[in-house]
Batch of 4 targets.
Target 1
Amino acid sequence: MARIAVCLSGCGFLDGAEIQEAVFTLLALDRAGAEIICCAPDKLQAGVVNHRTQRPEHEEEERNVLVESARIARGNIKSLSKIAADDIDALIFPGGFGAAKNLCSFASNGPDCTVDPQVERLTSDMLEKRKPIGAICIAPAVLARIAGARKIAVRLTIGNDPGTAAAINRMGAHHCPCETTEMIVDTEHRIVSTPAYMTGKGPADVYTGIEKLVNEILTLAN
């Protein structure tokens, strides 16, 4: 049975993990018979957004990424610092603005972003050991920054947004346009990405793309 780590970035698409993308990832993995290990950085998230008004909450409100991610994982979650590349067969990052705010600073710094140290450690080790990595929605920006800093030109997609695609390319990756229901597979570096809600209009198409990504990740992991 493949052991797949799913790295979450909070709970809620405006300041954490996109809940539907995260749940679809878990569902597809479970249907395929994989062992799932949910994880997240144990740190304060970069701001809190009221998802009803879509406006930032008061600055004094603070939430922890690991604690918020535990909502999606039903409490069965580990600190990212406890996960090593040798312990897993593949790693998947669901999207949501948390990937661009809490896993890295792409939301505020674009191609000049920095990456959370624990995210960078695990992802770098996975790349070095040639273990599969999946990235959904905006999460490919994290991989572009990490791989680009190591002069690894990975093929990725965030869909078809010109500005985001240009930023991906500036970080040293090669962006490939992609529809919601499809995926981009970098066979050389064993990376799979799909746009999900970067382009998706509803759950059905988003799930189709994520399920294809999950199945490809499991094929690469075996």
Target 2
Amino acid sequence: MIISVSGKGGTGKTTVTSLILKALVENTDKAILLIDADPSTNVPLVLGLNLEKTVGEVVNKFRKGLEDGSLAYVAKDSLLEGWIYETLKETTRFDVLAMGRTEGEGCYCYVNSVLASIIDKIEKNYDIVLLDMEAGLEHLSRRTDHDVDLLLVITDTSKTGLETARRIKELTKEVHIKVGKILLIGNKFPPEVEDMLKREAEKIGLKVAGIVPVDENVMTYLMEGKSLLDLPSDSPAFVSVKEICKRIGLI
């Protein structure tokens, strides 16, 4: 099952993704791969993980090797695959793959094709793949298997958050991604605004999966660099995300 979390920058995508991961880890025995597809690579910070390399760093090294000829006499596909597997962070309950940033401009069709096939191969080893996206869907379009079972769009209380949600919905058609279901989640929302969110979401053809309230525990954990996986089970934000996960059939 492929679950993608997207939305406008600053809406709390990584926080919500981490809380979904916590709900999955605590309530299922599924093999989970978390892909940090945002170039800012915030997932390790929020989860208290130390990642030595990102896929982007490996791809940059690979591209330079192609350009300067140092990889002329090696099995390139196997080499890149091995390098990418080295970036995979394994934990006892889930694994993490951070995409990171890539350098340079122009068409790297060969590199992107190999990268897509490797990501597809890695994903097939897991029951659930959870992607923390940037606002665009470029990393989804890099996968040869573009289908996404569930696209969760995170919005805050701003008009721009909803406008970004509308654009993301349209973008799935432009990059030819087949999405099973698209749902909206309001993050840092007061309960009295939920009905308004549902009305605004209906205008852009989206359904609301639920809202996540402002949570002082989350803010404290983020400021102090504590893993959100250690957040108390009765913390309001986690209670809400867990309920959302139940409502949409993830747990």
Target 3
Amino acid sequence: MASPRIGVVLSGCGVFDGAEIHEAVCTLLAIDEAGAEAVCLAPDVEFDEIDHLTQTPTGQRRSALREAARIARGKIQSTAEVDPDDLDALIFPGGFGAAKNLCDFAERGPDCKSLPEIERLVLAMHGAKKPIGFACIAPALAAKIMQRVGGAELTIGKDPGTAKAIEKMGSRHVVAPVQEAVVDRSNLIVTTPAYMLGPSIAPVCAGIRKMVQEVIALSRVTLT
């Protein structure tokens, strides 16, 4: 059997305005360790840059695709151009980019809208019964998109405000520790809290590895 091809959707490069780098790298490492192939993806959109030293806006704008290419070592595709038929599963690391660049949850909460090309990709994967993983704040994106198909079972750890927003969007929130992953088998969705709980890279990586393992296991089931 061929190795599963796992799309990894990045939202830039850096926790405050893009993909959380630790989470992205842990995801890529776990995919490689599992003998699967990572396919890095990002939307070709611009976002407001945050100075990660001062955590303040710089007044500049950056390209999510070009910034994500730093993490992907240059090997990356636009989410608008990827063919879902070429992927066996999909994973979204967290970082504020997931809530600012892939959707506007950071600004509008449960009244947010998702980027159309991201919504199309997720719904195509879901419709094809291919598993999808979400880490950290990215389950908020999942809740918004899954509104269209009746919601899902998700975790962002135990933050009450975000959990309430997820449930307002029609999904069910499950409290989970950082090292664990919640598996919604009916929707083939796997979520883990990552840096929504922290507190450091080791437990975050343990939870991401668990999420990746569950996603790959589900992908192999759907391939048979």
Target 4
Amino acid sequence: MSDADLASAPYFALYSGGEVTADDIGDHLHAWHNAGDDEQRSLPEYLGMTDEEYAIWAMDGRTLPLLLLTRQSGGSLREAVASYLGEMLEHQRRVDRTAIHALTHWIARNPPP
């Protein structure tokens, strides 16, 4: 996929339409970094994510399907992340430690309304 193709629509819109995979986000990150001064949008905006969605994805890249499902359903992002975190804590794999730590702090900073 060329940089011109990547600029045609935000990554998250393409991902939600099934036009790209979760693994393709790296190409979009690369395109944003290479755009230089021509690109004025923030990285989350360029990707088509809210700042919160981007922060959660940055903490654990495996959350893309969760972010998409939450956006499509109109559900609470905090509740979705709390549920995801609960599942991670239940299985406590060594590889999840950093994500568990980061998401736990995100939940603490975002109390329920």
